[in-house]
Amino acid sequence: MGQPVAVVEKPTSRPGVVRLEANRSLTGMGHERFTAPDQAVGPRPAAELARRLFATGRVDAVHIYQNVATVDVKKGFTADGLADVLENLYIYWVPGREPPVLEAPAEEAPAPAAGGDAPAAVSAAASRVPAHLLERSRLAREKAAAKPAD
């Protein structure tokens, strides 16, 4: 699950430097430059992309501005596969990986109706509505029914 990023890889006039242009902004209006993996700190998309690019072992530096990542590739390596890193930046689930199990919230006991009467039977949909909202709705219906028609 998640959404892949469309990436266009473009060469530059400098050998060993490649531009990766994405279809979404990564930094807003700010420039971010990373020359080491320990500089990529925090949950920002630019920092996460830099961490992933450095993890390939083929990157010397990364500069990100809006939707363009300029990557300095280490000497002796190619840029093959670096565009895939950006394409998969927002993919958080892949086939074969088990999604985390989330616990269901605790069931809320229905509150007794006003006036001390026993709670009336409610539909399956209404059982998921908090009791105070059901009570407020009942009181509003009674008030509307008691209002004289114009």
End-to-end separation? 55 Å
**pLDDT averaged over residues:** 84
Point out poorly predicted stretches: none
User: What count of helical segments does DSSP give?
Assistant: 3
Specify the structural class.
alpha+beta
Describe this structure in words.
The protein is an alpha+beta fold and 150 residues long. Helix content is 22%, strand content 19%. The chain is built from three helices and five strands. It has a five-stranded antiparallel sheet with strand order 1-2-5-4-3. β4 and β5 form a beta hairpin. The chain starts with 6 loop residues before the first strand and ends with a helix. The relative contact order is 0.15. The model has no long low-confidence stretch (mean pLDDT 84).
Summarize the structure.
By secondary structure, this protein is α+β, with helices and mostly antiparallel strands.
Key descriptive features of the protein:
150 residues, 3 helices, elongated
List the helices and strands and how they pair.
Blueprint lengths: L6 E5 L5 E6 L8 E4 L10 H11 L3 E7 L2 E6 L8 H6 L43 H16 L4
